[in-house]
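Lecture 7 notes: from sequence to structure.
We start with the chain below.
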Amino acid sequence: MHKGAKVAIGVVAAAMAGAAGLGAYNVVNAVTDTSGSRAEAAPVKTGPPTDTEVDRTARDFLAAWESGDAHKAAALTDNVEAATTALTGYRETAHVEKVSFKQGAATGTKVPFSVTAEVVHGKQRDTWTYASSLGVVRGRSTGQALVDWQPTVVHPQLGRGESLTTEVSGAPQITAVDRDGATLDAKDYPSLASVLPELRKRYGVKAGGEPAVEVRAVDPASPGKAPRTLYVVSKGKPAQLRTTIDAAAQRAAESAVDRQADASVVAVKPSTGEILAIANSKKTEFNAALMGQTPPGSTMKIITSAMLLEQGKATPDKPVPCPKYATYGMRFHNVEESENPGATFAQDFAASCNTAFISFAGEVPDGALTAEAKDVFGLGLEWKTGLPSYDGSVPADPDSGKAAAMIGQGRVQMSPLNMASVAATVRAGSFHQPYIVAPSLDDRGLARASRALPATVAQQLRSMMRLTAVSGTGRRAMSGLGDDIGAKTGSAEIDGRPKPNGWFAAYRGDVAAAAVVPQGGHGGDSAGPIVAAVLRAG
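Predicted structure tokens for the same chain:
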């Protein structure tokens, strides 16, 4: 008998040495007794797992998970690949540095357990506790008791295809305040609804805030699906962001644009470029006050006049007739085909005579207006306002394109911000790039025009804009605003629209503003009251 036993061991050893797979099968599925005969393999277990199997399987699985051995834990499930990915991600993506479990009493094949997870992300650390559960099933091919793998084992709120990730939840929260410290919110100032989130994104951290850290449920296969926050590791630290906005001017701007179905206005401080108010009657993501691109009509004559005055082509008192029509590559006319054969240049400006300005088209080079707009008024430079904004465009077109540009038509494109800055440049005598957050906060460089207006030209422009505000096309809107005022109206024709866009640019003391009312008709009547309301508040 003793000799037979030796023979049996030798047969198993030889089988394993000769063919590892066959040897393994034999060891598991057959037993050679001491006489050399083979016994039948034990049958694969079927039916629900026993209470003992449920308890042991859950305990072994949770112990392996707790030890950090994702592969060992996954091997105790019925979906090794999915479980390995999820349990590995629990540490590496959800940033759970340490986890412990407390197993509860099973109900049938369901085992509840509590989780205590130490989540670490950067400098943020917190203890996350929650309850979960797992089910135990019998493996079809092996008969072994296994954890029924589902995403809910990791967390009860995880859906199919979802996984956990711990990450910074966007930019820190901010409390935006105006120049004097008054809180600015979208509830009180609806036009800032699209502005405040952008300021948060750009300046939340720079203003001293810290972003929140959250554990989220994400679906990598569905990038358009919004993540769900399951736990807040850190609420972060909100920042106070001081802006250049003036609450009183902003309130007036909001009220003024709301009187029109479609209108936009911007106010700036000429001496510094600080933006005092931004308002749109249409409360959409697109901020027309800053990003609008449309011909500015006769408000462009401010820049054209600066060019003509600098070049000595005109002076305020120089006789410049205003005929009904003028031709330069095409035929131009005045609003309502008005005329004034005995007008001076200043009177042409105040009455917004198109034909008088067209008469100079042949006397200036094609690129002269473009250069004046850029070199003196800062248009077309890279403005760094602190928000997305349009920088203005004055193309150097020849022939009729040049003539049209001189009266703010053709391919000239401006926003209310641009034209508010133009009025501000006249008032201050030099360009100060508009901004809403002090450049010192993020060390950004502001755009600089290459030269200021010559002092004489600046004074001449101010006298012409004052004439417009006192006795010209802007007089009704600017009435009662005092002596230190200047204005320019505009009506920009747009192809396919029955009425022109109404424009108005003006200043009062150290506040300048510009507004546009699409299809508003005459700028003095439509946009003028909006600008005047803001100037009055400032």
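Points to note: The first strand starts at residue 31 and ends at 32. DSSP finds 18 helices and 18 strands in the chain.
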